[in-house]
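Sample pair:
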Amino acid sequence: MGWLASFAVAVLSGGVALVVAGFVANACVTWYRVSGFEGKAGYAVVAVALLGGIAGFVIGLVTARVVAASEKPGFLLALGSALGVVVGLAALVLLVARLFADVPPRLGGQEMMLRLELRLPVGAELPQGTGPAPSVLLGSVVGGERRAVEAGKVELQQARQEDGHWLVPASVFLFTARGWRLLQVSLDGGQGEAFRLPLPTHPTAEHEQWSDWLPRTDAQGNPWPADKLGYRFRVERLGPGR
């Protein structure tokens, strides 16, 4: 097999690599939530596709010359080998990217919002609008480290009283299925409280109902005291245009 055939293999391999790299980049743009502002996401996909095409051309040329020097040189063998390398590398990159991406879990094909009700301690007053804004954060914890976080919304204006407690609605997007979930709540701008959210990686329809009030017990196994912040939760499916 001569150099002309080798270049043909390289061109075909590069073309396939360009398309495959574009597909991988497009998936990563979604998984890693690359902003589409001023075309950033599109530019990223095009750049990765072009780099993939160049890499595919080099892989094709090198593979073709290796096959040409073998005992059974042939155009189809060289092309098949080059495409196998290209597709194999793309599949590996796609798999690794997927494993480390924050991909939202779905229920019935739809992404979900975590709905919360925060139960203030008995006798506690609602935070005033003049102070620091209240916050709710949902963290993803892997290996004992909080590796990613999503900020939610606390709706003080929707608060109501029940059995001597103020109940404050809040919500946060379920942004990832990685790790276990850490819920952090601050109503006065301070450090606040942190809870391990007992929600599985992939919620089911039963989690669309309100949970019990949590935590149920303290570290000593006693009922959770009324003078500490509590909460309950459920998930809510989101439509396509959340």
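The chain has three helices and nine strands.
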